[in-house]
Amino acid sequence: MTYPSIVNKTRAQLSHWLQQAGYWGAQRPALAIALLLGGGAAIGAGAGIADNALLRSKADNQEALIAATRRDAQREINALAARMGELQAEANRLNALGERLTRIGQLQDGEFDFDKPVGIGGVGPVRDMTKSELDEGMATLGQQFKASGEQLSVLESLLFNRQLDMNAVPGREPIAGSYITSGFGGRADPFNGGHANHKGLDFKANVGDPVLAVADGVVSYSGVRSGYGNVIEVDHGNGYVTRYAHNSRLTHKVGELVRAGQEIAKAGSTGRSTGAHVHFEVWENGRVVNPRNFLSQQSPLKVQIKG
After folding, report:
1. pTM for the whole thing?
2. Is the distance from CB of 217 to CB of 238 less than 8 angstroms?
3. Which of 85, 236, 237, 287 has the most CB atoms less than 10 A away?
4. Helix, strand, coil % (nearest 5) of the chain?
5. DSSP bridge pairs for 229
């Protein structure tokens, strides 16, 4: 029952009681007074009931409004939590990508630590952040993550391609744990004693020691050459060709792909040789060059690729 209906009903009862009081006032004055007093009490009780109903209605409306506000706030919190999860996943992806780039670029250990937070600071005053400011900040952060991810992906591709290029440049010794027994250039001929031009480097070896490719490439020659004995040559596809001579056995055929550090022959003393060793030559665009310029260049960032 609404407040107006309660008031109207009370007024009708009061009018009825007043009529009765007028009638009984003429007949019995004491009874009329009792009716008037009872009518006043009834009016007071009706007004109290109406006030209580109104307060209860207002309380119910406020509770409904509070519940709706809570639901709206929870929906916003859930949306922020979902967005935070997306940003965290993007941050994890960027950290993993950064670690890969650190390894590819062979950066010093500890120079870039993606697990350690960066230092930040600032001065006051500080105020509460509005929801619109928070939404704008998270949107900006998401755009920055996206842009950084795209840039790092391009950098990774460039470094990877550079790594492939550098893997095809002679950058290691053709036999492990050895030393040079004869250098590049002019020297006394070991057979005739006169002056001779040595086109490569000789490395100490025992018969059967593994001869290793110094870079990625494709076997372009595998057979016997005059004076060299059993020879294997690797074309690295960038103007460089390496030659490994005096081998006891060749383990790869023409056209086969080899990787840096992979065995391609067994050391020996075939051809014009005084004993077991590995003769190693480097050819650049058809011209023989000193292999010392390429030895121990393990880092892909140490050698400048031409072209």
Report:
1. 0.51
2. no
3. 236
4. 45, 20, 35
5. 225
Q: What is the pLDDT of residue 298?
A: 46
Strands 263-266 and 249-250: antiparallel
Measured between alpha carbons, how far is 240 from 132 in angstroms, rounded to an integer? 61
Say what the pLDDT of residue 302 is: 39
| Helix, strand, or coil (residue 288) | strand
Q: Tell me which residue has tokens 């490439």.
A: 217
Determine the pLDDT at residue 296. 60
Please report which residue ranges of the chain form alpha helices under DSSP H.
3-27, 29-104, 131-167
CA angle 200, 206, 208 (to 5 degrees): 100
**CATH class entry, domain 180-293:** mainly beta
Domain ranges, ordered by start, for the chain: 1-106+144-167, 180-293
Tokens of 234: 């690797």
pLDDT averaged per 10 residues, the chain (length 307): 56 57 52 55 62 80 86 80 75 73 61 60 72 80 78 72 76 88 76 74 94 94 94 92 96 94 95 92 93 67 37
Record the tokens describing residue 247, joined without a space.
């081998």
Distance CA 13, CA 234 (A): 117
Whole-number pLDDT of residue 241: 95
d(CA 67, CA 62): 9
253, containing H or E segment: none
CA distances from 125 to 122, 128, 130, 132 (A): 10, 10, 16, 20
